[in-house]
Amino acid sequence: xxxxxxxxxxxxxxxxxxxxxxxxxxxxxxxxxxxxxxxxxxxxxxxxxxxxxxxxxxxxxxxxxxxxxxxxxxxxxxxxxxxxxxxxxxxxxxxxxxxxxxxxxxxxxxxxxxxxxxxxxxxxxxxxxxxxxxxxxxxxxxxxxxxxxxxxxxxxxxxxxxxxxxxxxxxxxxxxxxxxxxxxxxxxxxxxxxxxxxxxxxxxxxxxxxxxxxxxxxxxxxxxxxxxxxxxxxxxxxxxxxxxxxxxxxxxxxxxxxxxxxxxxxxxxxxxxxxxxxxxxxxxxxxxxxxxxxxxxxxxxxxxxxxxxxxxxxxxxxxxxxxxxxxxxxxxxxxxxxxxxxxxxxxxxxxxxxxxxxxxxxxxxxxxxxxxxxxxxxxxxxxxxxxxxxxxxxxxxxxxxxxxxxxxxxxxxxxxxxxxxxxxxxxxxxxxxxxxxxxxxxxxxxxxxxxxxxxxxxxxxxxxxxxxxxxxxxxxxxxxxxxx
Length: 484
Fold this sequence. Notes:
By secondary structure, this protein is mostly helical. The chain has helices at 2-15, 22-27, 43-60, 67-81, 116-120, 124-139, 142-153, 158-170, 172-183, 187-211, 218-229, 238-242, 247-258, 269-282, 287-300, 306-319, 323-336, 341-353, 357-370, 375-387, 391-404, 409-421, 425-438, 442-455, 461-483; strands at residues 92-96, 103-106, 110-114. GO terms for molecular function: metalloendopeptidase activity; zinc ion binding.
């Protein structure tokens, strides 16, 4: 069911991509295909839809809430965004656990990456080329502009089309009915708009890649390899369904890439570490197969990248409770690179598994003196405090963390656990209510907060806080339902 839902979402979004922006078209020799979106769908409305879509994705898709991978993806994504043009919204990058090669973007600067992309992108520039392409779809407002065009060609309103995509996430059959009613008109024109937008996203993505210091040749190289690999496949990956790769598109990206100066881009150890983590923990591979993959990678990559294979091997050993072997690898890696977040996170997990709680706390406390606000370190340290029975300290740290990162479910989950361990039932319910709200489960979130209010002392500040949050959730629920 999840796989089918994802395909519906991605195909619906792909079917909605449309015309490029004239001002950017002139700058990059693009044809003038239409007008800029915004007459009927504002940036603020896009943000509202994006937030709603993201909540449903959290509920319906296997989103990877891994602090280390999230940090890596966010750092890479924002490096690209800082070098993109026409950025009008904040961006959020997240990963979905799915072996299929795919990436997609939607309203509000949300960019999703399938974990399978790490299995096929050979280096960081190849991954960055896909992300830069998706960033361009957002900055050029392709989804909004295609919906405006579809609304002009059909009886459906823009709100109905946007709501249809929202419904497609929550209920595929209902959502498809709305989308089909809105896009059944001029299908050939829609296909042409999609192809035009794919080329525009490639061209703008190449420009972003170059400005951000990546290898622009990575885009045609990755696209060409995908095209060759799946040329005769009866079931191509979702990425080729939502982002078609006709020969002229590959040729165009290759010619464009050749017009940029050659850059000597060093291999990224962080990319290979992230890739090893995905293989070890999110690929679904058996331990012996994952270990074989690490060994083969060690032979194929330059010596400077060998720590990634050792790190991946250590994770597999750690997850299989082979602590002595994992410890030898991880402590050597950490000694050679003491500030590396991948190693600090894994060592923290190792020491917890070995019940060396003081060792874990010392490790993270020292790291926090250098980077006191780093989310990977903060969430790991809070977890160590929790496992050490230092519940009040953990709660204090997690309250600050959830205030700074209200959409991070890891913080709310740990806060709920800490309060449960202390017997603070009302606070536990409130924290779980926040997780439910992030998943658009409004009724249950409100129910949990109502229970929390009933448990709180009558007339207390705690009860007033719960009641105020209930009022906010009621407003958010009505706003969410109105979008459909």
